[in-house]
């Protein structure tokens, strides 16, 4: 069977998750990408993947597709439209659009959250504090808390200089604890894989610094989140949903209609003990999910991201490591190499590395992870 995988820049989810899973399944993969020199080990075709018409044309002129898939936030609509064109299993392109467009998500949900769209610096009469963010942004890039009209105008001008022609969303700040929900469906059955409790940096930014696994959210919270996903039309393939809970009410922050990233999906597959990436690909090839995934339910885990706190050159950093300590499996992977120079982004591009820890007791997982990180050294010089 042949699967077309739409991609932009390489990610761990694709290179360590989906491509190895396809190889284990014996699936022939053709990568369509606008960065063909960034991929190797499989067939790669250059394509303007942001244009669904170019995707359809490139596939039509090549081998017959059995499935079309992407794990990119930016390409879900294109992949869905291409799958529909060829009569293949896929997401509803309208649902993919509602998830990608944060303003459209709010309008469609009608959840009472105040929001507005702006395309020029402006001082709005809004319920401050507000969150300012790109309408179609990802990874906390240019997401900032603003306290008043003057700050909104100043911050929006800064962002629009970096993102000319973009549309920004201003919406009321939603208080509460931040969580995620990870789901996998085939349009008929939907499995809840669990979620994470997310700890973010201090305002004004929202950099995700630590993710602690939550095996099961309280039933009333879960029902609220799933109802909102149903309203958006989300139910096919894997989905990563971010939401806050305040006084028992769950409200969506954003819906990423793909696998959770930053190596949390790699951790999730290990923690649950299921072929997660294989299941996702098989769904896009038309295979129904089993009634039960057989996932382990005794796991505890966290993912932690040491972050740069200043601009400069990284001159010292720990190497990759895999360790087993007191029943906890630790996987550390560097995300920057010594000698690299970066500004301070105040996004996840400030990550120096990622630590994944899995075990069966959360207190032990937390302790072992803290002890490991305390022994490491990162040094940044101006």
Give an overview in words.
This protein folds into 3 domains: 2-88, Rossmann fold, CATH 3.40.50; 114-172, 2-Layer Sandwich (Dna Ligase, domain 1), CATH 3.30.1490.20; 177-381, ATP-grasp fold, B domain (D-amino Acid Aminotransferase, Chain A, domain 1). Helix 1 (12-25) links the parallel strand 1 (2-7) and strand 2. The strands form 4 sheets. Strands 13-12-9-10-11-14-19-17-16 form a 9-stranded antiparallel β-sheet, with helices on both faces. Strands 3-2-1-4 form a 4-stranded parallel β-sheet, with helices on both faces. 28% of the residues lie in helices and 31% in strands. It contains 10 helices and 20 strands. The protein is globular.
